Amino acid sequence: MYKGPAEAAETFITALAEQDWKKVEKTSSGRALYTINTRKEQVGSLYAAKIVDLQINVMATSKRWASAQVIVETALSDGDVDVSWYDLMLRNENGWKVYRVASVLPVLNGTPNLKGVSKVDVQKIQEVFSDYLTCLAQNRYMEAGRYLVGLSRQQFEAGKDALAASPVIKTFEGIAVEPVWHKDNMVISKVSYKADSRPVSVMVWMYNTSVGWKIANVETI
Length: 221
Description:
The protein has helices at 3-18, 21-26, 30-43, 119-137, 141-144, 150-163, and strands spanning 50-61, 65-75, 81-92, 96-103, 172-183, 186-195, 198-209, 212-220. With 221 residues, it is α+β, with helices and mostly antiparallel strands. The radius of gyration is 19 Å and the shape is globular. The model has no long low-confidence stretch (mean pLDDT 90). Strand 7 and strand 8 (212-220) form a beta hairpin. It has 2 domains: 3-103, Nuclear Transport Factor 2, Chain: A (Roll); 114-220, Nuclear Transport Factor 2, Chain: A.
């Protein structure tokens, strides 16, 4: 029963990444189609992305309706990579079509396996977060966005012009990383440091992509 909606979701996401708009239109309807048409006008002549990894999990289904969660890593035209998490809603009327698509934060579940997080992983996570803060402190916002993935990257890039008016922080020091949850490619860590001499603590969600760790979410605690 899962085969139909899973195949439709794969076709839709692949066509979206490759900017095959005709195929996208054939596999979508409703709000999803409207959203895609709007995006098509915005992207203009941007180069298509190449899918590096695609995971589709059909969460619920019947003969006429289904929901699915998608994780897709793409190689971008500038050599960078991005990872996106989507919630899809599909309907089956003479063929499965995606009628709603939403970009979401990663969906997490299960108990942690902190033994799978090595000292090297912790060091790499610290380095990535430090490099990200360095870009923020130096007003290098285009470069800072490259350390982010998914919804966090989308939101950051949408607001980068306002952020660029003045640095979010000027200095930082003393980054300490303490992993608190790990499963598959995701590690959540409590990260503590001083920004402009003020103590800061955040939960940082890091995803291990094909080119290394990227920031999927940052939450103040």
